[in-house]
Amino acid sequence: MNNIKKIYGIDTLYFFFETNENYDDLFLEILDQLEDIKGKFQKKDIEFENKDLYINLKDMQLNFLGKQEGFYWFKDSNDFFRIGFKDKYKNRGLNDIRVQLQGNGIYTFGISSIIKLLQEYLSDYITSYVPVTRVDINCFIQYDLSFIKKDMFVTRKRKYSTINEIGDANNTQTIYIGKEPFKLRIYNKSLELKKSKKFEIMNEYFLNHNFNLEETIFNVEFELHRTHLKQFNINSLDELFANLKNLFISSMNEIKLIDVNSVSSANLSNNKYQAEIHPLWNEIINDFNIDEFMQNFFPIERLKRKISIYNENKFEFEYIALIRKAYINNLTLDTEYLNELYFKAKETFNKTTTPKELKKDYIEVDVIHESTNEKENFRLFKDGSLIKPLRTETVANLSDYELLVYLDKTSEKQHLSTRDNHIYQVAYKEAQKRNLLLNISSKEAMQF
Predict the structure, then answer these.
(1) What is the C-alpha separation between 345 and 38, in angstroms, rounded?
(2) How far apart are CA 47 and CA 64, in angstroms?
(3) DSSP state of 128
(4) Per-domain boundaries in the chain
(5) Rounded to an integer, what distance in angstroms lies between the CA atom of residue 95 and that of residue 388?
(6) What is the pTM of this model?
(7) Beta bridge pairs of residue 378
């Protein structure tokens, strides 16, 4: 089993910054910036949402997420971290600045880099003490653990005996053992990534560690909260980082995977503590090494540029990338359509995009042309205006028959406008790519 690939690390990290006597100045400045942005919307009588608000911390822009538990929560534009600020005179049992590191930052720039960056930006308002509130220490393993069942675990304490199993009779996808403040999760990471926004980041991370993405990857992860960490006299980040190995080994010994084949069925039913520890569990314990993960340090100046204020250059880069993505996926684009989207975006300034506000303010109507008897769909709005909705087809998703029908319809309208011609050309190229069209010259066609 020694050839099994494993990556040890920290999958989640939450902590506070202890503030100094200058912090109140920062908090009032944050409130002022939020009110200033709100005022700009209100002056133009434009509706706004949380996502429209932001503050600047030196040259770093932070986007507003909302208020929760007394904290005003923000995130950086790349979603590397989330940070909350609260009034120092309220809820005094908590520190004033709370930080949650996100996977986007952890697996690209590294924990140490992001912490150092935040300490630099907040240097005028914080002390050197950084209390930790939660850490998830984990091991990604290139091994299919779907064979495990909840009766294959033994725990040293009764309070850890709460076990939840997700899967079917043959394959386990996820197992939860214990509950806050100490919990073990084992789950199919490959399966989770198919639904995750971190798909590309994590795949690149695994490839850099020589994992095979075609094979199953599982995650063995311990979630440790502040009250549990205090049992080991761990209160700060420095104390946490100095004791990561001991914490992980202790956790693995608190909850163990056993080898059910090492004892008889009778003993397994009556006293499974007599069973041997599964060799895989021992290997995970013995191979633990987090040095490389903690030494992943990205130059601060380059990281600063990465999370700098959103400007024209960044907008241009994202805009071009978005158009390229549309063309790659055979979406029909032209200046007329993009111009319509521009005005459509401007219209959203006058309304929110919450589910309540997005209720239809129009009714669907069919208009029948007397001369051709052709029926067209329109939207009738409250002001009496009739607007024909934009219809776009992703031709790559059509079946062969649907594509040929669509091609026939678009061919009749291809001369009406530049946009109609583009739509036809996209459909024609897709049909040609699938060999659905006869590849003959006009001269050969005359012979038929």
Answers:
(1) 19
(2) 16
(3) S
(4) 6-294, 317-446
(5) 55
(6) 0.69
(7) 365
